[in-house]
């Protein structure tokens, strides 16, 4: 009897909870014979049986855990191989951080859609990490550490913050040369619950923290960016969010000889997708597009 078929049947019995529940496309006796054949080949009992229920033996539990993991890997490999025959078309659901979507990804989408005119994107904007499987999300962009072992990730950009403002603002107020000079400037402050309003800097072995003040405080980074572009004040912002504005000369970096410390919980920016689905050509095309977009010095 084919060993692989017997292993698959054993897994079905465990997951269904009984021989009869596992015997949807065959007879109960055929299922029982396959499990018995597997036990005979292994030389160990995998299931305890009685008239009312069955349970895994210790050997059965360990065997199931190992073959389940291998089965998941095999399913992913099959899906990935089949996906290579797919065309890049149809619906792709993507979840993007608000700032990432509005300042970087959406402005670059014409390039992607020109390459794949039959691709349709459903774009969800949220800074919350939603469950990819239950929300039927194909690809997401997350910022920070990735604890979930059930996802696959590709790094898009490091976490690097800069201090910047418009040329017009600095023409009126001058350039800060040290973090302490920020006390003389209008500093636009991000006030999300998990963030401190203190700005921290390092240079060599020196660490400096300042408590800036300004005319606008908000929990929305896009509000701060809009205010800075209206010459109101200085902001601390992710470099990828304003890269194209720096290149165009609409914003100017200051205090460039200092490292602006990442906030607690910050890390790199990643594209993520569920490992259980494999990587379809649609997902691959979109992830490649993200990597190319973030590698562009104009970043959109």
Overview of this protein structure:
With 300 residues, the protein is α+β, with helices and mostly antiparallel strands. It folds into 3 domains: 81 residues, Winged helix-like DNA-binding domain superfamily/Winged helix DNA-binding domain (Arc Repressor Mutant, subunit A, Orthogonal Bundle), CATH 1.10.10.10; 97 residues, 3-Layer(aba) Sandwich (D-Maltodextrin-Binding Protein, domain 2); 100 residues, D-Maltodextrin-Binding Protein, domain 2 (3-Layer(aba) Sandwich), CATH 3.40.190. It has 9 helices and 15 strands. A 5-stranded mixed β-sheet has the order 4-3-5-15-6, covered by helices on one side. It has a 3-stranded antiparallel β-sheet with strand order 12-7-13. Helix 1 crosses helix 3 and helix 5 crosses helix 9. The model has no long low-confidence stretch (mean pLDDT 86).
**Average of per-residue pLDDT values:** 86
Indicate the low-confidence ranges by residue numbers. none
List the domain count as a whole number.
Answer: 3
Major sheet: arrangement of strands: 4-3-5-15-6
List key phrases describing it.
300 residues; alpha+beta; Arc Repressor Mutant, subunit A; D-Maltodextrin-Binding Protein, domain 2; 3 domains; 5-stranded mixed beta sheet; 3-stranded antiparallel beta sheet; 15 strands; 22% strand; elongated
């Amino acid at each position: 009897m084919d060993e692989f078929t017997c292993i698959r049947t054993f897994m079905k019995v465990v997951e269904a909870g009984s021989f009869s529940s596992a015997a949807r496309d065959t007879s109960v006796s055929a299922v029982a014979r396959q499990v018995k054949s597997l036990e005979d080949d292994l030389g160990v009992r995998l299931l305890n049986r009685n008239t009312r229920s069955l349970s895994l033996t210790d050997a059965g539990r360990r065997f199931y855990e190992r073959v389940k993991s291998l089965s998941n890997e095999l399913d992913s490999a099959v899906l990935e191989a089949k996906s290579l025959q797919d065309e890049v078309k149809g619906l792709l659901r993507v979840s993007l951080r608000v700032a990432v979507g509005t300042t970087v990804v959406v402005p670059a989408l014409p390039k992607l859609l020109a390459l794949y005119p039959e691709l349709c994107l459903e774009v969800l904007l949220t800074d919350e990490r939603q469950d990819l499987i239950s929300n039927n999300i194909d690809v997401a962009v997350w910022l920070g550490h990735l604890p979930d072992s059930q996802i696959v990730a590709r790094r898009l950009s490091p976490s690097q913050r800069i201090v910047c403002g418009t040329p017009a603002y600095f023409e009126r107020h001058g350039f800060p040369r040290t973090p302490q000079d920020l006390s003389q400037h209008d500093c636009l402050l991000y006030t999300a619950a998990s963030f401190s309003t203190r700005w921290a800097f390092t240079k060599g072995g020196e660490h400096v923290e300042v408590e800036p003040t300004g005319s606008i405080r908000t929990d929305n980074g896009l509000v701060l960016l809009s205010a800075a572009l209206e010459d109101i004040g200085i902001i601390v912002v992710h470099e990828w969010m304003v890269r194209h504005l720096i290149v165009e000369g609409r914003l100017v970096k200051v205090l460039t000889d200092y490292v602006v410390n990442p906030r607690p919980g910050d890390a790199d920016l990643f594209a993520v997708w569920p490992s259980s689905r494999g990587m379809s050509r649609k997902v691959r095309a979109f992830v490649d597009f993200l990597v190319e977009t973030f590698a562009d010095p104009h970043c959109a």
